[in-house]
Design brief:
- The chain has about 150 residues and is mainly alpha-helical.
- The protein has 5 helices and no strands.
- It is elongated, with a radius of gyration of 18 Å.
């Protein structure tokens, strides 16, 4: 039963990673297609819900599960301590990066009216490039969490 929580941690972390990749592969190219019109289209589309609605729920839940993984697996599996702490730090780092880097850019892209096309284009490019870095951080967290699972079964 204790390992179930690690499986859950890996699954939710993978889900967050894949939603982030979806944003890079599908959403962001559409946002930048014809700025400022494409941003207005995205704003209209996101009137009811945005990707932030997903991340605001899954992010904190994932961190709580990560703490539970550390607590519940600390004594029974000392060989994975460094891995689960590293994975947890990477997932928290991705969220800190989101708050510090992406929130201000989201505000420029989707919060201001009217949008200055030059500023919006530069902001969209920055957002698009750095989201791949965020995805890499998330992927690293998932891989390290998977290594900890491997170490348990090995």
């Amino acid at each position: 039963m204790k390992l179930f929580i690690l499986y859950l941690y890996i699954m939710i972390g993978s889900g967050i990673l894949f939603v982030n990749l979806y944003n890079s592969l599908v959403d962001a190219p559409n946002w930048g297609r014809n700025i400022p019109d494409s941003l207005e289209t995205a704003k209209n589309y996101f009137q009811q819900k945005t990707p932030a609605n997903f991340f605001k729920i899954t992010g904190p839940l994932h961190h709580l599960i990560g703490l539970a993984v550390i607590i519940f697996l600390w004594n029974p599996y000392p060989q994975i301590r460094g891995y689960i702490i590293s994975a947890f730090i990477l997932f928290v780092l991705a969220d800190v990066f989101t708050v510090i880097y992406f929130f201000p850019r989201n505000n420029i892209l989707f919060g201001q009216k009217p949008v200055d096309p030059k500023i919006a284009l530069q902001t969209w490019k920055e957002w698009s490039h750095m989201n791949w870095i965020r995805s890499l951080i998330l992927l690293s967290g998932v891989v390290i969490a998977c290594i900890s699972l491997y170490k348990i079964y090995r």
